[in-house]
Design a protein that fits this description.
- By secondary structure, this protein is an alpha/beta fold.
- The protein is built from 16 helices and 26 strands.
- A hairpin with a 5-residue loop joins strand 23 and strand 24.
- Helix 7 runs parallel beside helix 8, helix 10 runs antiparallel to helix 11 and helix 13 runs parallel beside helix 14.
- The radius of gyration is 26 Å and the shape is elongated.
- The chain starts with a helix and ends with a strand.
- About 3% of the residues have low confidence.
- Bound molecules: calcium ion (2 copies).
- The site of one calcium ion has 7 residues, from loops.
């Protein structure tokens, strides 16, 4: 019934935007809106030849046109509406008149889905996947008319055919694996000539790339994920668009994007924003320079751009019911605007999760962007979470550096010891790798032992872990070969794949062992409050040995990471008495072995032990 109603509305809207007197409204963004939003203001971007010459009236109870805003381009008209709390769902009749010419547009107003945002916190583990590379659930959409780039699985940078249907088909697998949330790389239309598979060159903010499926399929994906207890995080990019975006053929205004006399690249030096000694020219180039030749840089200091982007994210949340946003390149757009955006989203949807991609080496630089951080320059990001890159980099060297060196597990201790910089370090998203980095397994020398040490750490220390797809079967990926190699097809996702993670067919012993290990740890972690929210206490590292405890009033877990290649180590209760007082025995989570006497026991070289104490 609901689908029929949506279909009928679509027909009515299509009829409404049919040309009248040679005139046409080509687009209205957002394409629909919702009743019951906290802010009554809505700004429509209306696009059509000569549309700026029209006056606009709304004929609908509780809705009025407040003002019209025009730019130097006569093909754009911005209509500021006020949608009062009394307005009910239906189609708002908008009448456009210019002299004797008139147009009508029926604008759908839906009921805002009720319910508070579920939010994402330390009880979750995010599974990051790239839609084009995960599972091809619908081979019929691999090639779609109107989309420039054709599928080519032989190219690492080509389109491989993965899609939203593939994710829907894999929900049971993900639930069984033990992750609790999916962060998918961007799925919005990227109608670019080449390398469009990664999704970071948006060409339409309101349309799923048809090679992934329809908007409705995304909505179904979110709804079915929720039915299985999984949450969904959408990747968004406000810094730039793709050169194939429809705006680029007819820019709303000259200051819609940052323009230069010749191609000008950002200096990628995000630290200039909070560096008290930074030269203004460096800071401006950081913000205004283009991320790449095919990625025009939006000017978010233009209030029309700000409103367009903000409403876009609110629309996707209300439309699909998603649980979180991962915002790409967070420091690259105008920071004041981004701060207002994060506040608006979390004011409208209390508890909604946003993680900003904030890529820095140092915890001090990271903390600048953290929620409630009091910065001396007054900046407040309003971001619920940041990506903990310093901890990620520390994991790369921690388990491979010679024991006793400052790059060993000492790095983990050192990075975490700087948590006083963050008002709430438990909010940080923590990870071993992601789609932009050499995979952890490759980075650390393809050792299953090191892999287990890394996962044991990331799934038991403080924060919200994120696991990159394929990690569970030790997929490899080397950045120096090119980004496409970090994003290879997930085995079993394509018809005819010999190796199949979903059925277990043709997995190597190493892959099976990694999968079992990951599944066991993830599923154990699921209901361990002590890991989700517990306190952390760690002890100074010694010759490659790192010991820490997660504890609360009810439970205590001891984690021992012995990164030493050759030495087994004896753990004595006396040394950790501050944390072991009152406990006599334990249970090791990975092996299932009981530890009957905590007074003294041994840990083998290159091994992790996670011990529930009692
Ligand atoms: Ca497909
Ligand atoms: Ca920028």
């Amino acid at each position: 019934m609901k689908n029929t109603r949506i279909y009928l509305i679509a027909i009515l809207v299509a009829l409404a935007i049919a040309p009248v007197n040679g005139q046409e409204i080509e687009r209205v963004d957002p394409p629909s809106w919702f009743t019951g939003m906290k802010e009554s203001a809505l700004q429509l971007m209306v696009y059509g030849k000569g549309i700026a010459s029209y006056d606009v009236k709304a004929d609908y109870p509780g809705v009025r046109v407040v003002t019209l805003v025009k730019t130097e381009n006569p093909n754009y008209l911005f209509v500021n509406l006020d949608i009062s709390r009394e307005a009910l769902p239906g189609n708002i009749k908008l009448s456009f008149t210019s002299g004797k010419k008139s147009l009508t547009h029926l604008y759908p107003l839906y009921e805002r889905p009720s319910g508070k945002a579920r939010g994402i916190n330390g009880s979750d583990v995010l599974y990051l996947l790239m839609p084009d590379r995960f599972v091809n659930g619908d081979p019929s959409n691999d090639s779609v008319e109107g989309m420039t780039e054709q599928p080519d699985r032989s190219k690492p940078g080509g389109r491989h055919g993965g899609d939203l249907k593939g994710i829907i088909n894999s929900l049971d697998y993900l639930k069984g694996l033990g992750v609790t949330a999916i962060w998918l790389n961007p799925f919005l239309e990227n109608n670019q000539q080449r390398s469009s598979y990664h999704g970071y060159s948006t060409t339409d903010f309101y349309r799923s790339d048809p090679r992934y499926g329809t908007n409705e399929e995304f909505r179904q994906m979110v709804s079915q994920a929720h039915d299985k207890g999984l949450k969904v995080v959408m990747d968004m990019i406000f810094n730039h668009i793709g050169s194939g975006h429809w705006w680029m053929k007819d820019l709303p205004s000259a200051d819609w994007i940052h323009q230069f006399s010749e191609f000008t690249r950002t200096n990628y030096k995000a630290s200039t924003y909070m560096d008290p000694y930074a030269a203004r020219c460096d800071m401006e180039l950081m913000e205004k320079g283009w991320f790449d030749r095919t990625m025009p840089d939006l000017d978010q200091s233009n209030p029309l751009v700000e409103t367009y982007l903000t409403q876009n994210s609110l629309w996707w949340i209300a439309y699909s019911g998603l649980d979180g946003i991962r915002m790409d390149t967070y420091p690259y757009p105008e920071p004041a605007m981004m701060s207002r955006w994060a506040k608006r989203v979390t004011d409208e949807f209390p508890g909604f999760f946003i993680v900003g991609e904030v890529w820095f080496e140092e915890p001090s630089q990271m903390a600048y962007w953290a929620l409630n951080k009091k910065n001396s320059d007054g900046y407040r990001s309003n971001l619920p979470s940041v990506t903990d890159f310093p901890l990620c980099f520390a994991t790369h060297t921690a388990f491979t550096a010679p024991s006793g060196s400052n790059d060993g597990v000492e790095r983990l201790y050192s990075v975490l010891s700087q948590d006083f910089l963050y008002p709430e370090p438990l909010r940080n998203v923590i990870f071993l790798d992601n789609h932009d980095m050499t995979r952890f397994f490759t980075e650390t020398g393809k050792s299953l032992d090191v892999y287990k040490l890394g996962l044991s750490f990331i799934l038991t220390t403080r924060g919200i872990p994120q696991v990159y797809y394929g990690t569970e079967i030790v997929m490899e990926g080397d950045k120096s070969k090119g980004d496409g190699f970090l994003r290879e097809d997930f085995p079993g996702g394509w018809q005819g794949d010999e190796k199949n993670v979903f059925t277990g067919a043709n997995l190597t012993d190493e892959e099976k062992e990694a999968l079992d290990f990951t599944m066991k740890l993830l599923n154990w972690r699921k209901d361990k409050d002590v890991i989700h929210t517990g306190n952390l206490k760690h002890y100074i590292t010694n010759d490659g040995l790192y010991v820490y405890f997660r504890f609360n009033k009810k439970e205590s877990v001891m984690v021992i990471l012995n990164s030493n290649d050759t030495k087994s180590r004896t753990i004595t209760k006396e040394k950790y008495i501050e944390s072991l007082k009152g406990f006599t025995k334990g249970h090791e989570v990975i092996t299932g072995k009981a530890i009957d006497d905590l007074t003294s026991f041994t840990i083998e070289p290159k091994t992790a032990m996670i011990i529930e104490l009692n």
